[in-house]
Every structure is written in structure tokens, then in C-alpha cells.
Amino acid sequence: MRSSLSLALLVTLSLLAGGCRAAVLTQSEERDANQALAALSEAHIPAKKHPIGKGQFEVTVPQASLDEAIEALARVGLPERSEPGLAELFAEPGLVPSSLEEQVRYHRALSAELARSLRSFEGVREARVHLALSTDPGSRRRGAPPPPPPSASVLLRVEAEELPRLRGLSHELQALIAGAVPGLDLAQVSLVYARLPPRRKAPSPARPALPSGALAGIGGVAAAAGVGVLGVWLLRTPRRQRREDDAVV
Fold first, then answer.
1. Rounded mean pLDDT of the chain?
2. Whole-prediction pTM
3. What is the per-residue DSSP string for the chain?
4. Per-residue pLDDT tens digits for 97-112
């Protein structure tokens, strides 16, 4: 009785240990969570996606595979560092900001929102938008030269296989940036593409070798089958020979 209880306790503890999972990606958008699942699947690491509310997701892996999972996600640029958008920046508490501080905060938030939109294009792994915008014209000194026209520089880190297609969409990407910034001309939007190295596929797991006892058993069965077939053939051969002799007589 005591041995049975000990065995049951051991099995329960083993199941609990095998069920321990750790979060390798938290508070991520569904697109990033799906990319993480694909990368972990290529690395042969079992992963699960869990919704945690407000459009955010969490990706978990077995505790024993956590280090390997972190390395697999780092190879594909995950998790991405997210910049605060309009809602996050203007929700920050503080004293009443000056007009210049408001403009700087708005430009920073606008850059982050545009980067999010660019990341929604398939094949774009990371996007950075740098806006060079003038300050409020009313704040300039009288007689000062007019400010340069607004401009934007965009850095896109894209998957190697998607680079030709995204280059073909350069005009659309420029229009997306120019349309969101007042006074920004399409010609003043420069795009820089950084090609990411192709994803390295993890080697396929080796097939488990059969134990030597199993191989010996299979060999024995095959040998026995061969001997049986040979015996049947030998038994039937004299009968066939006698039938042929009787037919000749």
C-alpha cells in the first residue's frame, strides 16, 4: 500500500514538473505573438499563445526550454522595443507643459504611431521614423529666416525574402508618412531598407534509435519467418516432383 502511494505521488510530481511553463513574451500584440510562435516552431520548441486582455497576448514555453526560446526569439528580433504612442504620451501626469514641450511630445508620439503602421506591412520586422518638423511659427523671432520644410527619414528592418516586394511599395510607404504629417511633401520622405539575414532553420530532431533488444527481436522474427517459408517450399517440392513423375509414366 505504501509503495503504491509513493508511486502515485512520484507520478503526480512528474506531471506537475512537466507542466511548469514560463512566459517568453508578454504584453505583445497578436502579430508579434504569432511571429514568436512561428519562430519557436521552427526551433522545435512547443509554445502556446494566451490572451491577457486589452488586445495583448502572452507566449509561454516549458520552463526547461526558456533559455533556448529566448535565443530563438532574439534571432528574429523579438521582443521589439515599443515606443509610446499618442495615448500613452499624453496620458503621462505632470505639470502644465510649455508649448514647445507639447510639440516635442506630439512629434515623438506621431513618430511612434507611424512606426506601428509600418510594422503592419508583412515582412517589416522593425520600423523607426524620424521627423524633422519646425516649431510653431508664432514662437519664431521677428526677422528670423523661415524654417526648412519638414522632412522624414524612415528606417525599415525587413525580412530578406520580402525586400523586393517592399521596395515596390516605396511610393505607398512614402504616401503613408506624408499624409500623416501636415506640410510634409512626398519627396521629403526618405526610406532606408535594412535587410535581415534569412531565418536559420533549426535542425530536424533525430529519430530515436530502436533499442538493441528490439532490433534483436525484429531480426529473430525475420529469421523465423524466413525459415518457415523455406520449410514450406521444401515440403511442397517432393510432392510436386512426384506429381510430375506420375504424369510422365
1. 74
2. 0.54
3. -HHHHHHHHHHHHHHHHHT-EEEEEEEE-HHHHHHHHHHHHHTT---EEEEEETTEEEEEEEGGGHHHHHHHHHHTT-SPPPPP-HHHHHT---SPPPHHHHHHHHHHHHHHHHHHHHHTSTTEEEEEEEEE----GGGSPTTPPPPPPPEEEEEEEEEGGGHHHHHTTHHHHHHHHHHHSTT--GGGEEEEEEEEPPPPPPPPPPPPPPPHHHHHHHHHHHHHHHHHHHHHHHHHHHHHHHHHHHHH-
4. 667 677 878 888 899 8
